[in-house]
Amino acid sequence: MTYQDTHAAGRRTGHPAPYGGRPAASVPPGRPRRGPGGRRALTALFWLGLAAAVLPWWLDTPAGSLTDTADLLTAGGRITGLIAGYLLLVQVLAMSRLGVLERSLGGERISRLHRDVGATLLVAVLTHLALLVVGYARQERNSVFGEVGALLSDYEDMVSAFAAAGVLVVVGFTAVRGIRRRLPYELWYALHLTSYLTLLLGYAHQFSNGAQLHEPGPARIGWIAAYLLVVAALLWGRVIAPLVFNLRHRLRVADVVAESPDTISIYLTGHRLNQIDMLGGQYFRWRFLNPGCWWESHPFSVSAAANGRWLRLTVKVVGKHTAELRDLTPGTRVWAEGPFGTFTAAHRTRERALLIAGGSGIAPLRAMLEELPPGAALIYRARQPADVLLHRELDWLAQARQTSVWYVIGRRDDPGPRQVMNPEGLRRLVPDLTRRDVYLCGPGGLVDESVKVLRAAGVPRRQIHLTAFEL
Amino acid sequence: MRRALLAITGLAAGTTALVVLKGGPGAGQATAQDLPAAQAPVAPGGSPTPGGVTPSAAAPSVSATPGASAKPSAKPSPDRRPASRGSTRTGTTPAAPKTTTKAPKPTTRTVTGSSVSYKYGSLQVRITLSGTRIVDATATGMPLGGQSGQRSDDVQARYSGSSGEVVAKQSADLSTVSGATYTSTAYQRSLQAAIDKA
Question: Nearest Cβ partner of A83 from B11, B84, B119?
Answer without folding.
Answer: B11
